[in-house]
Amino acid sequence: MPADDLSSILSRAVETKSNYDTRLLAQQLSTNYRSLMYWLRGERQIPAYLLPQICVLLKTYEPLDFLESQAGRVAFKIPDSRIASGGELLAVSSLLREVGEALESVAATLADGNVEESELRETVPRLEGVIQECASLKYLLEDLCKKKKKKTKR
Question: 3-state DSSP helix/strand/coil percent for the chain, to nearest 5?
């Protein structure tokens, strides 16, 4: 199994998309095939500005997640805020319910002061879900506020 570095993560992402033509990827990145191969083999550093585009093209954010973890941060995709107006309050309610359930799981894990590996495997994804759901809620509420301001300006 390759070491965890950016080039190996990028290589795995490309390999996983077996139907994705590497030459096409290079073309979509407006670079040449040779440069792309140097980056994937770790022989040269990939320009940072290309990473978001690579992630979008390959439909995986693993390379960006790796970099964020190296910086001690957590990244997530900003949710689509184009929710039908009738479903907005329902969406907020659903987000809050999911956050509450995940926090209950975290509280149960910490209750005895001893975190077992099995608890960790179950709780960490739920905790990451809480972070994402809270961010979703933040962007949704900001979007609702913007929409309200637009309506009052009319």
Answer: 70, 0, 30
